[in-house]
Amino acid sequence: MQEYVAEFIGTMVLIVLGVGLGASVNLKKAYAKGSNWLYICFGWGLAVAFGVYVAGFIGSQAHLNPAITLAFAAFDLFPKDKVIGYIVAQFLGAFVAAAIVALHFYPHFKETTTEEEGNHVGIFGSGAAISNKLFNCLSETIATFFFVFILLNLGDFTEGLKPLIVGLTITSVGLALGSTTGYALNPCRDFSPRLAYKILPIPNKGDAHMEYAWVPIVGPILGALLASLLYTIIL
């Protein structure tokens, strides 16, 4: 049970810091509004690093990502009997985190009255710069492939440095490959916050665009599976 609690809390930390970043750069009267892509990528890298630190300290493998959990289990890198518990904890942690962010920024949501002003689902979920779901899914697959493949090859680093390296990997992937779709890389990072945006009483909110939700689910899972396959072949 402690592993599942660790995944829940670690994912919650990751999403509070990441989605909070999204709110900060989009909502009116937030000091960080209008910050650039470099700021966003470094912020998400730190969010992932701290989530991994917390989950690892409490006692899980700190996946914080259903795509990683599924891919590792598929290639016997993770016990299959723990998959459901990990994934449920991850999705729940992400949803609770999104609710916390919605509460924290409630006055700013009230001030930001339209999608054009910044009150849009992009605060909570990812979205394509150019809408083409096939290529959007391919972008998520490629970005996740490189993230997970690098992740699988971090074995030589001291344990205490691994979360920081994971976070820097997120930053690097975001800077290089993330500007096409916002680089979800993680089904629960997108779906749970997107669902929270849809169902929570957030003032002045726009469309949650649930029709896009499959892209950040399918793409990261495919990318993680391919990375794990290549890793097992060359290991």
Q: Could you give a quick summary of the protein structure above?
A:
By secondary structure, the chain is mainly alpha-helical.
Enumerate how many helices there are, as a single number. 9
Which architecture per CATH?
Answer: Up-down Bundle
Give the distance, in angstroms, between the N- and C-terminal Cα atoms: 31 Å
- Total of domains: 1
Bin the helical content: 55-70%
Calculate the mean pLDDT score and round it. Answer: 96
Task: Please write the CATH class name.
Answer: Mainly Alpha
| Fourth-tier CATH superfamily name | Glycerol uptake facilitator protein
Rg: 17 Å
What proportion strand?
under 5%
The structure class reads mainly alpha
Question: Would you tell me which CATH topology applies?
Answer: Glycerol uptake facilitator protein
Number of strands: 0
List SSEs in N-to-C order: HHHHHHHHH
Most strands sheet: none
Runs with pLDDT <50, length 5+? Answer: none
Global outline = globular
Organism: Vagococcus carniphilus
Transmembrane segments: 6-25, 37-63, 83-106, 134-152, 164-185, 212-234
Main location: membrane
Subcellular location: Membrane
